[in-house]
Amino acid sequence: MAKPLIFDSTPLVYMMRVSLSNLLRGLDEPKIITTSVYNELLEGEALGKPEATALRELVYEKTIKLQDPKDKGFVLKIVKLAAEKERRPLHRAEADVVALAKELEGVAISDDHVARSIARLIGIELHGTGYVLGRIYKAGRISKDELLRNVGEMRRSGWRITEEDYQKILDYLRRL
């Protein structure tokens, strides 16, 4: 069975903003979010953000499953490790994602640099939005030209990633 993909909010938000989240249905891997990520995204519903409604639909139809890590102590250890090693906070939602990925032997999906660093330290597979976009392309759900256009649109819609990360994603997707 394919490793489950455990999503942080940022990859989902920007995929939803450019209507790519529907393509998640075509991936074989189980797709999971934690309650903390779900609640974080639903806060946008009151502000009229369409990604909140899109997420609610994906959860309702069970394209994305809700699941929380069982070991809350491990979540707190991850938060503490981030503060000690990175000297920067790791939000609870990101810590939940990393902890659940460890628990399920899955893949954490996050663009957060602190989450990436902590995942490496504790031996958890973590990839960013580019990985998911590559999986969607490899599944034959989108053409390369359309995918690259959407990545640019994600950036223009406010996706906060460094120029270096953006170029790495574009290079990765072009090589597929």
Short note summarizing the structure:
The chain is of the alpha/beta class and 176 residues long.
List keywords for this structure.
5-stranded parallel sheet, alpha/beta, 176 residues, globular
**What structural category arises from helix and sheet content?**
alpha/beta
Share of β-strand residues: 5-15%
Ranges where pLDDT stays below 50 over 5 or more residues in a row are none
Order of helices and strands: EHEHHEHHEHEHHH
Separate helix tally = 9
Tell me, what's the shape? Answer: globular
Major sheet: arrangement of strands: 3-2-1-4-5
**Could you estimate the helical fraction of the residues in percent?**
55-70%
Mean pLDDT: 93
Major beta sheet summary: 5 strands, parallel
Rg over C-alpha atoms, rounded to the nearest angstrom: 15 Å
| Tally of DSSP β-strands | 5
Distance between the termini: 23 Å
Provide a descriptive summary of the structure in words.
The chain is α/β, with parallel strands linked by helices and 176 residues long. It is built from nine helices and five strands. It has helices at residues 9-17, 35-42, 50-60, 72-86, 92-104, 113-122, 129-138, 144-156, 163-175, and strands at 5-7, 31-33, 64-66, 107-109, 126-127. It has a five-stranded parallel sheet with strand order 3-2-1-4-5. Helix 6 links the parallel strand 4 and strand 5. Helix 1 (9-17) crosses helix 3. The longest helix is centred in the middle third of the chain and has 15 residues, at 72-86. The radius of gyration is 15 Å and the shape is globular.
